[in-house]
Every structure is written in structure tokens, then in C-alpha cells.
């Protein structure tokens, strides 16, 4: 073998080794992002306004169908950094939903924010953007968002509480330093900002689907949905089962 051929073979071997090393590094990097779990900031129990009443689907619908399900914590308070968060849920069939937002003030009745907002949604994962006519939410305050539908003249409500929180400076710096949506999902999830993590994750998914990252987030937050008392055990167990089914069937 000539000297030139030996040199060429040596360079090829080195290049192959470098390619393998770089590929492994990239694989480990992206795997570490994808495995980041959602962790509630302090898992503050939600009040009675978001208490689940068990299956509340329509009587004329098949019992096999999953009823209107909010993709947000209900037994504990979720967090968002957005003053105009996006609300996400799941329906098995086309429905007309009514969104209401209330400010929760201790020892007072819930204070309505804006008027009722009506939205037609299609089967699968849906998102409802914060209505343009509504004023911004306020950092530090607790709110209740409620989706309602009417079936056989009976109003069916599903509600969840959220707190608008300021992003810690360390987290804000990390978010500003990356343009990767996957990494942003990871950062929001680790910081406990549920609404922001899910909104970013759904931008990586197909329309009306959760995608792989959204699926893992739903599975994560469902683990923390725990009954606050015996009266709620059956309803919460049923809700968790719905969430698990949604995570499986709506991934792709």
C-alpha cells in the first residue's frame, strides 16, 4: 500500500470515529431534553370550584366516549408565566364550548373576567387562545378557567385553577439563551410552568394531536392528580384513566 493510500485510509478512519462520537453526543443531548419531567412547583391543592364531579358526559352519548377533559391540573393549582395563557382540552366529538375566567379572591365570590366566550371545537386536542377582548391577567393572582357545554338543557362544567407567576431570573436567562422549542418545553416543565410547557410542546405536534413531548407531559401531570378526600377518589381515578387514554390515542 502506498504512502498516500495509507494516509487516505487513516483520515477516513478518523472521520468515521469523529462522526460516531458527534452522533452519540447529539443523541445524548436530545434524549436528556426529551426525558425532562413536569414537576409542580409546590402542588398547592385547588379549591372546591375545580373539584371534579366524576364522569359528566352527555347522557345521549356513548359511555365509551371520553367526556370533555381539561388538559390541566384540577386537583392542584397549575402555574403560568403568561398574562394571556392558552387553554387546552380534549373532546370526542364536535362541540360548542363556552369559556369563562374568574379571579379567585379569598372569602369572596369568584369575580368574572370579561364576558362568556364561545368556541366551536372539533374532535381531538383543542386549544382556546386567550380572548382578545379580555384584559391581561395579573402576576400573583389566582384564577379559575371554566369550559361549559349544554346537553339536553343541562349545563356541564369543567374547571381548573391557575396562578400567574413571575419567571425566576435563572429560568428566564436559560429561556432567552435557546431557540429550541424542545428545550423551552423542558425548561418550563422543570420549572413547574404547566401551561407554558404544554403550549410550547403542542407547537411541535401535528394539528389536534399531542405529539411525543405533549404526550409525556400529560402523563407527567396526571401522576400528581390525587384525590383531596374520599368523596373525590372515584372521580379523580376516572379522570386519570381518561388522561392516560388521551395520551395514548392522541400522540400522533
Model description:
The chain has a single domain (48-249), classed as Immunoglobulin-like (Sandwich), CATH 2.60.40.3780. It is 35% helix and 23% strand. It has helices at residues 3-34, 169-176, 181-191, 194-202, 211-222, 233-249, and strands spanning 69-70, 78-80, 87-91, 95-104, 111-121, 124-128, 142-151, 154-164. α3 runs antiparallel to α4, α4 (194-202) packs antiparallel against α5 and α5 packs antiparallel against α6. The termini are far apart. Residues 18-35 have low confidence and may be disordered.
Strand content: 15-25%
Mean pLDDT: 85
Q: Could you please say which CATH topology applies here?
A: Immunoglobulin-like
The tally of domains stands at: 1
Task: Give the overall form.
Answer: globular
Distance between the termini: 53 Å
Helix fraction bin: 25-40%
CATH architecture: Sandwich
The count of β-strands is 8
CATH class categorisation: Mainly Beta
Count of DSSP H/I helices = 6
Topology overview:
Blueprint: H1 3-34, E1 69-70, E2 78-80, E3 87-91, E4 95-104, E5 111-121, E6 124-128, E7 142-151, E8 154-164, H2 169-176, H3 181-191, H4 194-202, H5 211-222, H6 233-249
Helix pairs in contact: 3-4, 4-5, 5-6
Features:
alpha+beta; 6 helices; Immunoglobulin-like; 3-stranded antiparallel β-sheet
